[in-house]
Amino acid sequence: MRKPNKRRRSKHILLLSLSIMLIVFGLWFGSTNAYTFLKGYLLFKTGQVDAQDYEIKSDLKAATIEEEQIEEQEQVPLYSERPEQGENIGELIIPKLEAKLPIYHGTDEDELEKGVGHFAGSVLPGEEDNSVLSGHRDTIFRELGEVGKGDLLIVQTSAGEFTYKVKKVRIVEANDRTVIVPKPRATLTVSTCYPFDFIGAAPERYILVAELISSK
């Protein structure tokens, strides 16, 4: 009679130990970057698109080569209202990565946890001047290093679809404010921490500077 009691006691201790381990793991997972990492990874994976749907048409290629021939459009406001902090303002499509990512107005942690953040001090996508977007390198922008000069960045908002072409790739110090300076024409600046495999607070930023080549 004693042996069955010992077996039950051992089984009970084992189950209790496993339960405690699962609880501890859950608390750790929810309070560390692991949760943010997985959330961003799932966001990146669920936002997949087909790159062929966003290929540059032959006439658009000619326009990008001779950009000085693009006619100036009448200065009509693209947006009737400015977005509120935390509001979803559209989506960023990166054909090279076959990714489609939500954009939120603001660059606080609340916005960056949900997707790409739009720097509130910059113009909105499609407008003249410099529109600045940021994202975490270890979540939604984990593969941004594969995007470079000549690649497309497409932003879809309530005002339309805006296609930008990357003209320059920069690596700057984390406190470099030239990233957000005004531009003479419609520009999209996309920023993330760098190096991509750096552990801890990265000292630099990986910057894509793209100019508007098409809007509809």
TrEMBL record:
The active site is at H136, C193. GO terms for molecular function: hydrolase activity. It holds the Pfam family Sortase. Keywords: Hydrolase. It comes from the Bacteria. InterPro entries: Sortase, Sortase_D, Sortase_D_1, Sortase_dom-sf. This is Class D sortase. It comes from Oceanobacillus piezotolerans.
